[in-house]
Structure formats: structure tokens, C-alpha cells
Amino acid sequence: MTTINHPAVVAEVTDFYLKYEEALCNNNLEVMDSLFWDAPEVVRFGIRENLYGSDEIRNFRQNRSSPKIEREISNFKVITFGKDAATVTLEFRRIINGVERSGRQSQTWYRFTEGWKVVSAHVSLLPV
Fold this sequence. Notes:
By secondary structure, this protein is of the alpha+beta class. Helices cover 27% and strands 41% of the residues. It has helices at 7-25, 29-35, 54-62; strands at residues 43-45, 50-52, 72-81, 85-96, 99-112, 115-125.
């Protein structure tokens, strides 16, 4: 039977996500890259882009027009499945071109032998 939301695993994934959030807000490319699975199968669906594979994700981040992201997160949820799989979901608010926007984000994390990695991610904005 798979254990759902074992407290130690939830805490571990939460710590990794918070490390990712800090890297995202400060445009720390090295940390963001280290937390995503380095493989052609990794996927990131963004606000205006669909990225397939770690090379496309890395290239997008290196060429992002506004690299620093300031946002407020809410409804942050971590759900773990056993000791090696998890999902992270949240809502966020941020100012884009002087307009407050609301969005949502989801990530699927998997524990590989080298540690926890994002294997799939999605970011979207709600209509204005």
C-alpha cells in the first residue's frame, strides 16, 4: 500500500520546492537547472511556450526577457505518493507590465538516485 503524504517526504519535497522558488525569483539558473530532470523527456508548459527537454528549458531561462520574478504564492500544496513521487501545486499573484495578474503552477517531482527532480511543470495565467 502506497503511503500518501508521509510527513517526512512532504517536508523534504517542500524544502526542495522552496529552494526552487527562491532560485526562480532571483533568476539563479544553476539551481533551477539542478532541480529539473536533465533529460529529453522533461516537459515545461509555460505562459507562452511549450518546452520539451532540458535543453529547451535551459535555453528559455537563459533568454527570458524579464529574468527576475517577484510574486506572492498562495494555496501551496504538496502531495506525496510513497517516498519517490510528488506533486506541487500553487496559485500566485504578480505584477506584469503594471497589471496585477493571477496564475497557477503545478509540478511533478520524482526522486531519482541523484535526488528529487521536476519531471513535468506547468505555469499559466488566469484571464484578466
